[in-house]
């Protein structure tokens, strides 16, 4: 099984990941974890990376077959 990456797919993944990174950082700044005990969202770095990963995964829904 070979995976073919077209320019369109790369753009969709890049936009999805970038959007996720921005939304993760905004989530940390606007809502965040007030007590610091949340394992995933306790730091800005983790929250941003988590958003980027989710953005990447969600953007896979829009690439088609």
- How far the N terminus sits from the C terminus, by CA atoms, comes to 13 Å
Number of helices: 2
3D shape: elongated
Biggest pleated-sheet summary = none
List unreliable stretches of 5+ residues: none
Using only CA atoms, what is the Rg?
14 Å
Average pLDDT works out at: 87
Descriptive report:
With 65 residues, the chain is mainly alpha-helical. The protein has one domain. Helices cover 62% and strands 0% of the residues. The radius of gyration is 14 Å and the shape is elongated.
Topology, element by element:
Elements: H1 7-30, H2 44-59
How would you briefly describe this protein structure?
By secondary structure, the protein is mostly helical. The chain has helices at 7-30, 44-59.
Label this structure with key terms.
62% helix, 65 residues
């Amino acid at each position: 099984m070979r995976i073919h990456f077209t320019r369109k797919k790369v753009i969709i993944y890049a936009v999805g990941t970038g959007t996720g990174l921005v939304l993760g950082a905004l989530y940390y700044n606007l809502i965040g974890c007030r007590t610091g005990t949340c394992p995933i969202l306790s730091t800005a770095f983790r929250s941003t990376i988590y958003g980027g990963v989710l953005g990447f995964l969600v953007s896979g829904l829009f690439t088609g077959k």
